[in-house]
Amino acid sequence: MKPIVLLGEAFGQSEVRTGTGFCGASGIELLRMLNEVSILEFTSDDYDYLNKFYNTGDPILIDTIWRLHPEVVRTNVFNFHPPGNDIASLCGP
Description:
The chain is of the alpha+beta class and 93 residues long. Helices cover 46% and strands 15% of the residues.
């Protein structure tokens, strides 16, 4: 399978903590959807990391799952969190 690129808008609070994209709630949902349509196949390690995440809330565990699946490349237009979570502050009204 050829790599798939996921392009996000900007980091959220979880992404700021890890320095990588899609490590918060949206990343968990994307992982679930990609697994559901068989683009990713969750392993027992993936489920272990998810369970640890739900127990600790540590977004590094979600980043670890992404790193186990190099067929999906993650990036953002802006690799930082916009002030006040307002994307317009970065690119104008």
